[in-house]
Amino acid sequence: MELFRPIIVSLVALVVLAGCVRDFPDIPAAVSATSDDAPWPAFLPVAEILDPVAEASTLSAASAAALQRRLKRLRRRAATLNRQ
Predict the structure, then answer these.
(1) What's the rounded Cα separation, in Å, for the pair 53 and 21?
(2) What is the separation of C-alpha 32 from the centre of its chain, rounded to a whole number of angstroms?
(3) Do 61 and 53 meet the contact criterion of CB atoms below 8 Å apart?
(4) Pairwise CA distance, residues 14 & 43, whole Å
(5) Mean pLDDT for the chain overall
(6) Is the dihedral of CA 47, 52, 57, 60 positive or negative?
(7) Given a cut of 70, is residue 53 above it in pLDDT?
């Protein structure tokens, strides 16, 4: 019983606090009539969901060169930091 006392006290406190709510929002009033009649969103093919960047994963020559320069700078910075 000692083990469950904090759980019981927490649940009682939660119920008491939930009873203190004065202005509980009216959910049906928050949903407009047009949203009830809205169409379902279009489904996507599974391949597109699983691999969304498959087509955009190739680098141009300029991007590859810029990435190589950044890699060299980062390696020099790491070597400098390791020497300190």
Answers:
(1) 47
(2) 27
(3) no
(4) 40
(5) 82
(6) positive
(7) no
- The token duo for 56 is 């955009």
**DSSP category for residue 2:** T
- 58, two tokens: 């190739």
| pLDDT at position 69 | 96
CA dihedral 6, 7, 8, 11 (to 10 degrees): 120
Please enumerate in sequence order all residues whose Cβ is within 8 A of that of 59, keeping only pairs 6 or more positions apart, or say none.
Answer: 67
Average pLDDT, integer, range 31-35: 73
CA neighbor of 59 nearest in space, from 50, 49, 70: 70
Q: Could you count the other beta carbons within 10 Å of the beta carbon of residue 46? A: 8
* pLDDT at residue 75 is higher than 80: yes
**Contact, 59 vs 67, CB < 8 A?**
yes
C-alpha span between 8 and 16 (Å, rounded): 12
